[in-house]
Design a protein that fits this description.
This protein is α/β, with parallel strands linked by helices. It contains 12 helices and 11 strands. Helices cover 46% and strands 18% of the residues. It is globular and about 65 Å long. It starts with a helix and ends in a 5-residue tail after the last helix.
Length: 331
Protein backbone atom coordinates (compact mmCIF):
# COMPACT_ATOMS: atom_id res chain seq x y z
CA UNK A 1 0.00 0.00 0.00
CA UNK A 2 2.81 2.43 0.91
CA UNK A 3 4.54 1.82 -2.42
CA UNK A 4 1.30 2.40 -4.31
CA UNK A 5 0.75 5.70 -2.50
CA UNK A 6 4.29 6.80 -3.25
CA UNK A 7 3.84 6.13 -6.96
CA UNK A 8 0.70 8.24 -7.27
CA UNK A 9 2.45 11.68 -7.40
CA UNK A 10 4.91 10.43 -10.02
CA UNK A 11 2.04 8.99 -12.05
CA UNK A 12 0.18 12.28 -11.89
CA UNK A 13 3.29 14.12 -13.22
CA UNK A 14 3.64 11.65 -16.10
CA UNK A 15 0.00 12.11 -17.01
CA UNK A 16 0.53 15.85 -17.17
CA UNK A 17 3.45 15.68 -19.62
CA UNK A 18 1.47 14.93 -22.81
CA UNK A 19 -0.78 17.86 -21.99
CA UNK A 20 2.06 20.24 -21.14
CA UNK A 21 4.04 19.67 -24.36
CA UNK A 22 1.30 20.93 -26.70
CA UNK A 23 0.74 23.92 -24.45
CA UNK A 24 4.45 24.79 -24.55
CA UNK A 25 4.57 24.41 -28.33
CA UNK A 26 1.43 26.52 -28.62
CA UNK A 27 3.03 29.25 -26.51
CA UNK A 28 6.15 29.32 -28.71
CA UNK A 29 4.07 29.42 -31.88
CA UNK A 30 1.98 32.26 -30.47
CA UNK A 31 5.11 34.25 -29.60
CA UNK A 32 6.45 33.80 -33.13
CA UNK A 33 3.14 34.74 -34.73
CA UNK A 34 2.96 37.96 -32.69
CA UNK A 35 6.56 38.92 -33.54
CA UNK A 36 7.42 41.74 -33.43
CA UNK A 37 5.55 43.31 -30.55
CA UNK A 38 8.36 45.64 -29.48
CA UNK A 39 11.25 47.55 -31.14
CA UNK A 40 13.89 45.60 -33.06
CA UNK A 41 17.55 46.56 -32.55
CA UNK A 42 19.80 46.49 -35.59
CA UNK A 43 23.44 46.32 -34.50
CA UNK A 44 25.91 47.93 -36.91
CA UNK A 45 29.48 46.95 -35.97
CA UNK A 46 31.01 49.76 -38.02
CA UNK A 47 31.17 53.48 -37.26
CA UNK A 48 28.35 55.96 -37.74
CA UNK A 49 28.51 57.80 -41.06
CA UNK A 50 30.22 54.97 -42.92
CA UNK A 51 28.76 52.97 -45.79
CA UNK A 52 27.34 50.19 -43.59
CA UNK A 53 25.75 52.69 -41.21
CA UNK A 54 24.15 54.61 -44.07
CA UNK A 55 22.81 51.43 -45.65
CA UNK A 56 21.48 50.20 -42.29
CA UNK A 57 19.61 53.43 -41.63
CA UNK A 58 18.00 53.51 -45.07
CA UNK A 59 17.06 49.83 -44.86
CA UNK A 60 16.01 49.96 -41.21
CA UNK A 61 13.68 52.90 -41.73
CA UNK A 62 11.69 51.03 -44.36
CA UNK A 63 11.85 47.71 -42.52
CA UNK A 64 10.33 49.46 -39.52
CA UNK A 65 7.33 50.50 -41.61
CA UNK A 66 6.97 46.98 -42.98
CA UNK A 67 7.09 45.34 -39.53
CA UNK A 68 4.99 47.93 -37.74
CA UNK A 69 7.63 48.40 -35.03
CA UNK A 70 10.62 50.75 -34.65
CA UNK A 71 13.94 49.44 -35.93
CA UNK A 72 16.62 51.05 -33.77
CA UNK A 73 20.13 51.38 -35.24
CA UNK A 74 22.87 50.87 -32.67
CA UNK A 75 26.54 51.30 -33.60
CA UNK A 76 28.81 48.98 -31.60
CA UNK A 77 32.29 49.51 -32.99
CA UNK A 78 35.67 48.08 -32.15
CA UNK A 79 38.19 45.44 -33.26
CA UNK A 80 37.32 45.78 -36.93
CA UNK A 81 33.67 44.91 -36.34
CA UNK A 82 34.26 42.09 -33.85
CA UNK A 83 32.76 43.88 -30.85
CA UNK A 84 29.30 44.40 -32.35
CA UNK A 85 29.33 41.03 -34.10
CA UNK A 86 30.14 39.15 -30.87
CA UNK A 87 27.40 41.08 -29.09
CA UNK A 88 24.77 39.75 -31.49
CA UNK A 89 26.21 36.23 -31.26
CA UNK A 90 25.39 36.30 -27.51
CA UNK A 91 22.00 38.04 -27.85
CA UNK A 92 18.65 36.34 -27.14
CA UNK A 93 17.42 34.17 -30.00
CA UNK A 94 14.10 35.99 -30.34
CA UNK A 95 14.53 38.16 -33.44
CA UNK A 96 14.76 41.42 -31.51
CA UNK A 97 18.54 41.82 -31.95
CA UNK A 98 19.91 41.58 -35.49
CA UNK A 99 23.27 42.26 -37.14
CA UNK A 100 23.74 44.25 -40.33
CA UNK A 101 27.41 44.00 -41.17
CA UNK A 102 29.96 44.58 -43.87
CA UNK A 103 31.20 41.23 -45.19
CA UNK A 104 34.71 41.80 -43.84
CA UNK A 105 33.65 41.14 -40.24
CA UNK A 106 31.99 37.84 -41.17
CA UNK A 107 34.43 36.54 -43.79
CA UNK A 108 37.87 38.18 -43.29
CA UNK A 109 38.11 38.73 -39.52
CA UNK A 110 37.86 35.02 -38.67
CA UNK A 111 41.14 34.51 -40.57
CA UNK A 112 42.71 37.77 -39.44
CA UNK A 113 42.08 37.50 -35.68
CA UNK A 114 43.19 34.55 -33.58
CA UNK A 115 40.02 34.87 -31.51
CA UNK A 116 37.44 37.26 -32.97
CA UNK A 117 34.98 36.38 -30.20
CA UNK A 118 32.46 34.53 -32.36
CA UNK A 119 32.10 31.75 -34.89
CA UNK A 120 30.81 33.30 -38.15
CA UNK A 121 28.81 30.19 -39.06
CA UNK A 122 27.83 28.43 -35.83
CA UNK A 123 26.80 31.59 -33.97
CA UNK A 124 24.48 33.08 -36.61
CA UNK A 125 21.43 32.48 -38.74
CA UNK A 126 21.84 34.05 -42.20
CA UNK A 127 18.79 36.21 -42.96
CA UNK A 128 19.47 37.99 -46.25
CA UNK A 129 21.95 39.95 -48.32
CA UNK A 130 21.07 43.65 -48.29
CA UNK A 131 23.47 45.70 -50.41
CA UNK A 132 26.72 45.75 -52.30
CA UNK A 133 29.19 48.62 -52.72
CA UNK A 134 31.90 48.53 -55.42
CA UNK A 135 35.56 49.13 -54.65
CA UNK A 136 37.60 51.26 -57.02
CA UNK A 137 41.29 51.36 -57.85
CA UNK A 138 42.15 55.07 -57.72
CA UNK A 139 45.31 57.07 -58.26
CA UNK A 140 46.64 60.59 -57.86
CA UNK A 141 46.13 62.55 -61.12
CA UNK A 142 49.89 62.78 -61.60
CA UNK A 143 50.35 59.00 -61.62
CA UNK A 144 51.29 58.00 -65.20
CA UNK A 145 49.02 54.95 -65.54
CA UNK A 146 45.45 55.49 -66.79
CA UNK A 147 44.21 51.91 -66.33
CA UNK A 148 45.19 48.58 -64.78
CA UNK A 149 47.22 47.38 -67.77
CA UNK A 150 49.35 50.54 -67.68
CA UNK A 151 49.74 50.20 -63.90
CA UNK A 152 51.00 46.62 -64.27
CA UNK A 153 53.48 47.60 -66.98
CA UNK A 154 54.69 50.58 -64.92
CA UNK A 155 55.03 48.62 -61.66
CA UNK A 156 56.85 45.69 -63.27
CA UNK A 157 59.73 47.97 -64.20
CA UNK A 158 59.83 49.36 -60.64
CA UNK A 159 59.49 46.38 -58.26
CA UNK A 160 59.14 47.46 -54.64
CA UNK A 161 58.96 51.14 -55.59
CA UNK A 162 55.20 51.62 -56.11
CA UNK A 163 53.15 51.97 -52.92
CA UNK A 164 49.44 51.48 -52.34
CA UNK A 165 47.44 52.78 -49.39
CA UNK A 166 44.79 50.89 -47.44
CA UNK A 167 42.55 51.33 -44.41
CA UNK A 168 44.78 48.95 -42.43
CA UNK A 169 46.25 45.46 -42.30
CA UNK A 170 43.76 42.80 -43.32
CA UNK A 171 41.13 45.22 -44.60
CA UNK A 172 39.41 44.48 -47.87
CA UNK A 173 41.30 47.22 -49.72
CA UNK A 174 44.58 45.74 -48.44
CA UNK A 175 43.67 42.22 -49.55
CA UNK A 176 42.62 43.35 -53.02
CA UNK A 177 46.15 44.72 -53.38
CA UNK A 178 47.53 41.35 -52.27
CA UNK A 179 45.41 39.67 -54.94
CA UNK A 180 46.76 42.05 -57.57
CA UNK A 181 50.35 41.33 -56.53
CA UNK A 182 49.68 37.58 -56.72
CA UNK A 183 47.91 37.53 -60.03
CA UNK A 184 50.02 40.08 -61.89
CA UNK A 185 53.38 39.09 -60.38
CA UNK A 186 53.91 42.57 -58.91
CA UNK A 187 55.61 43.89 -55.80
CA UNK A 188 53.37 46.81 -54.83
CA UNK A 189 54.28 47.95 -51.32
CA UNK A 190 51.42 48.10 -48.82
CA UNK A 191 51.09 51.27 -46.73
CA UNK A 192 48.45 50.71 -44.01
CA UNK A 193 46.53 53.62 -42.48
CA UNK A 194 44.13 53.93 -39.56
CA UNK A 195 41.00 54.01 -41.66
CA UNK A 196 39.93 54.55 -45.25
CA UNK A 197 39.57 58.32 -44.94
CA UNK A 198 43.21 58.77 -43.90
CA UNK A 199 44.37 56.56 -46.77
CA UNK A 200 42.34 58.47 -49.36
CA UNK A 201 43.56 61.80 -47.98
CA UNK A 202 47.21 60.87 -48.49
CA UNK A 203 46.57 59.68 -52.04
CA UNK A 204 44.83 62.98 -52.75
CA UNK A 205 47.89 64.74 -51.30
CA UNK A 206 50.19 62.73 -53.56
CA UNK A 207 52.01 61.05 -50.68
CA UNK A 208 50.98 57.59 -51.92
CA UNK A 209 50.23 57.07 -55.63
CA UNK A 210 47.36 54.55 -55.58
CA UNK A 211 44.75 52.96 -53.32
CA UNK A 212 41.74 50.67 -53.35
CA UNK A 213 38.71 52.32 -51.80
CA UNK A 214 34.96 51.88 -51.59
CA UNK A 215 33.00 53.91 -54.10
CA UNK A 216 31.23 55.89 -51.32
CA UNK A 217 34.59 56.81 -49.81
CA UNK A 218 36.51 57.88 -52.91
CA UNK A 219 33.87 59.08 -55.38
CA UNK A 220 33.74 62.65 -53.96
CA UNK A 221 37.47 62.98 -54.71
CA UNK A 222 36.98 61.53 -58.19
CA UNK A 223 34.18 63.97 -58.95
CA UNK A 224 36.32 66.89 -57.80
CA UNK A 225 39.26 65.78 -59.97
CA UNK A 226 41.50 65.05 -56.98
CA UNK A 227 41.67 61.34 -57.85
CA UNK A 228 41.35 59.37 -61.07
CA UNK A 229 39.87 55.89 -61.46
CA UNK A 230 41.91 53.06 -62.98
CA UNK A 231 39.24 50.37 -62.61
CA UNK A 232 36.40 48.92 -60.56
CA UNK A 233 36.86 45.75 -58.50
CA UNK A 234 33.47 44.17 -59.25
CA UNK A 235 33.15 41.01 -61.33
CA UNK A 236 30.98 42.86 -63.87
CA UNK A 237 30.68 46.57 -64.56
CA UNK A 238 28.52 48.36 -62.04
CA UNK A 239 25.60 50.52 -63.04
CA UNK A 240 26.91 53.10 -60.56
CA UNK A 241 29.91 53.67 -62.84
CA UNK A 242 29.07 51.91 -66.12
CA UNK A 243 31.91 53.47 -68.11
CA UNK A 244 34.63 52.29 -65.73
CA UNK A 245 36.26 48.99 -66.80
CA UNK A 246 36.56 46.18 -64.29
CA UNK A 247 39.95 44.92 -63.15
CA UNK A 248 38.80 41.47 -64.25
CA UNK A 249 38.67 42.68 -67.86
CA UNK A 250 42.45 42.86 -67.66
CA UNK A 251 43.08 40.11 -65.08
CA UNK A 252 40.24 37.56 -65.07
CA UNK A 253 39.44 36.51 -61.51
CA UNK A 254 40.63 39.75 -59.95
CA UNK A 255 37.47 40.97 -58.25
CA UNK A 256 36.06 41.44 -54.77
CA UNK A 257 32.37 41.62 -54.00
CA UNK A 258 31.93 43.96 -51.03
CA UNK A 259 28.53 43.03 -49.63
CA UNK A 260 26.44 43.81 -46.56
CA UNK A 261 24.38 41.08 -44.92
CA UNK A 262 21.71 40.69 -42.25
CA UNK A 263 22.18 37.99 -39.59
CA UNK A 264 20.32 36.82 -36.47
CA UNK A 265 21.69 34.88 -33.49
CA UNK A 266 21.87 31.12 -34.10
CA UNK A 267 18.70 29.41 -32.93
CA UNK A 268 16.37 32.26 -33.88
CA UNK A 269 13.09 30.58 -34.98
CA UNK A 270 12.89 29.95 -38.70
CA UNK A 271 9.46 31.59 -38.87
CA UNK A 272 10.97 34.87 -37.64
CA UNK A 273 13.99 34.63 -39.97
CA UNK A 274 11.70 33.97 -42.93
CA UNK A 275 9.43 36.88 -41.97
CA UNK A 276 12.37 39.31 -41.87
CA UNK A 277 13.73 37.99 -45.17
CA UNK A 278 10.33 38.30 -46.86
CA UNK A 279 9.70 41.84 -45.63
CA UNK A 280 13.31 42.83 -46.32
CA UNK A 281 13.07 41.68 -49.93
CA UNK A 282 10.01 43.88 -50.41
CA UNK A 283 11.87 46.82 -48.88
CA UNK A 284 14.84 46.38 -51.23
CA UNK A 285 12.52 46.35 -54.25
CA UNK A 286 11.43 49.93 -53.60
CA UNK A 287 12.85 52.31 -56.28
CA UNK A 288 13.35 55.13 -53.77
CA UNK A 289 15.61 52.93 -51.64
CA UNK A 290 17.74 52.05 -54.67
CA UNK A 291 18.04 55.77 -55.43
CA UNK A 292 19.05 56.57 -51.87
CA UNK A 293 21.65 53.79 -51.81
CA UNK A 294 23.04 54.91 -55.18
CA UNK A 295 23.63 58.32 -53.64
CA UNK A 296 25.93 56.57 -51.17
CA UNK A 297 27.66 54.44 -53.80
CA UNK A 298 25.78 51.23 -53.03
CA UNK A 299 23.15 49.04 -54.68
CA UNK A 300 20.37 46.85 -53.26
CA UNK A 301 21.51 43.23 -53.26
CA UNK A 302 18.56 41.07 -52.19
CA UNK A 303 19.24 37.44 -51.38
CA UNK A 304 17.59 34.64 -49.42
CA UNK A 305 18.98 33.08 -46.21
CA UNK A 306 20.33 30.16 -48.26
CA UNK A 307 21.98 32.50 -50.78
CA UNK A 308 23.65 34.48 -48.00
CA UNK A 309 24.90 31.25 -46.40
CA UNK A 310 26.45 30.10 -49.70
CA UNK A 311 28.04 33.51 -50.34
CA UNK A 312 29.50 33.62 -46.84
CA UNK A 313 30.88 30.08 -47.10
CA UNK A 314 32.59 30.84 -50.41
CA UNK A 315 34.10 34.08 -49.12
CA UNK A 316 35.30 32.51 -45.86
CA UNK A 317 37.30 30.01 -47.91
CA UNK A 318 38.54 32.59 -50.40
CA UNK A 319 39.69 35.23 -47.92
CA UNK A 320 41.33 32.72 -45.56
CA UNK A 321 43.79 31.87 -48.31
CA UNK A 322 44.44 35.50 -49.21
CA UNK A 323 44.92 36.56 -45.56
CA UNK A 324 47.41 33.73 -45.13
CA UNK A 325 49.31 34.80 -48.24
CA UNK A 326 49.37 38.41 -47.05
CA UNK A 327 50.84 37.53 -43.67
CA UNK A 328 48.43 40.01 -42.10
CA UNK A 329 47.42 39.52 -38.49
CA UNK A 330 45.90 41.77 -35.86
CA UNK A 331 46.58 39.88 -32.65
Amino acid sequence: MAIRQALKPARRQLLKLPLAAPLLASGLASAQESWPNKPVTLIVPQAAGGANDTIARAFGQRLSAALGQPVVIENRVGAGGNVGTALVARAPKDGYTLLLTAQSAQTINPALFRNPGFDPVKDFEPVMTVATAPYLLVAHPSFPAKNLRELIDYAKTRPGKVDFASAGNGTLNHLIGVMLNQQAGLHLVHIPYRGAAAAATDVVAGLVPIAFGSLPGVMPFVKSGQLKVLGVCTEKRTRLAPDVPTLAETLPGLHANAWYGLFAPAGTPKAIVDRIATEGAKVLAAPDLAERMAGQGAEPFPGTPAELARLQAADLKRWAGIVKASGATVD
